[in-house]
Amino acid sequence: MPRSPPSQWDESWSVQLYSLAESGNSKGIGESLLAGGIPPEVIQWLINRFLSPRLTGKDLEPREANELMMKAVFSAGLSGISMIGVSGVDVAIWDLKGKMLGKHISELLASEGYPLNGGESTAEEIRVPVYASLPRFAHCQALIEAVGRAEKAGFNMVKLHQSPASSLRCLKEVREAFPKIRIAVDLNCGFSEVKAEQELSAMSSYGVEWFEEPIWPPDDYSGLRHLACMGFPLAAGEDEYRPLGFERLCEAGVKYLQPDVSKVGGITRFLEVSKVAEDYGVPLAAHVRPHASYVNAAATLALSGSVRQISMVEFPYFPFSPRLFTNLPTVSNGVASVKKLPGIGTEFLLADYAYSEQQRALDFADLDGLNFSGRREKSLGAWSKLLVCFRSSRSSCPLRFLSLFRFS
What we know:
The protein is α/β, with parallel strands linked by helices. Helix content is 34%, strand content 19%. It is built from twelve helices and 17 strands. The protein has helices spanning 10-13, 40-55, 62-73, 80-101, 105-110, 140-152, 167-177, 193-203, 221-229, 243-251, 266-280, 294-304, and strands at residues 16-23, 26-32, 58-59, 125-133, 157-160, 182-186, 208-212, 234-236, 256-257, 284-286, 310-316, 330-332, 335-339, 355-356, 385-389, 398-400, 404-407. Strands 4, 5, 6, 7, 8, 9, 10, 11, 12 and 13 form a ten-stranded mixed β-sheet that branches. Strands 1, 2, 3, 14, 15, 16 and 17 form a seven-stranded mixed β-sheet that branches. The longest helix is centred in the N-terminal third of the chain and has 22 residues, at 80-101. The protein is globular.
């Protein structure tokens, strides 16, 4: 997917990991977040060799499948690689169920008491505020160019991901170039608590919606509480996995929670987090990484039709290809609109697009010692198969896992 200007993350982060579920003519797809420092083939192995055999041939609803996967991986920790693998499979199973029944995710959840048309959504379409998530650029001028492209694409808010060392300077230049656009700043856990207080104080004069994950480590709840008490608007949660962690963020005074459906355990566990947010009265600014594909974004948009607490959704600023996905959204005045179609609302046109299977080391240079410089590519071998059946279907439903694709 060509886009300009190129970011520092294009080469290493433009990698996707999918789970594909099939039953007859119905297909469901889910995406697992690939984050810096995690070898993608490890998550592939977890899905193909560990989760798949435990679900094969069982008569399971999505929540039951999720519970089984959670129990299978809990001794390795209900976080990180384990939950990222579970996430893609969970979304694929929800998507498959919706497509088998001809129902959008919001219709499936309405039977559990969730609103059918949450937020600005209607019976025919999802409507939810979105903001453009910009990747990292080598120079502030390239960032300014990207902000201009995002504004022309219909966004009225952007989020910056510049390095901690350049965030203040680039924020200043973006604000000067775009005095009216709303800006959030993701600091990727780049500062100590003391340094964060200094940097956030300097940045605040440029009108920032929120400061995302300003301190290391991300679960330094006392440090976050200190910054929140200083009056800084904070957002966090992309690195939390369990409801208790989100409760601690709420108690620390975080202004927005940011669960990611491709990381937190799929749709099933995202719904648990939404209940925490509702209990504490904290809105969700649902996380979608800048280089995610439309599968992750579609699942998040679909949830916004049912989850009241979703106030906005992070969104890649570049256009998705209609050669890859159907039913793509439009963005106007900062609001995404997309038709409610079965499942998460999109079909993956893999057969119509050339792809290659590759392995990548994902660079994330803010954390010393976690910056992989190597690059390697090789075929990843055949897909594995998994049989999952829903009680509403009498036929078998082979669930196949496509693992690593880097689209050219």
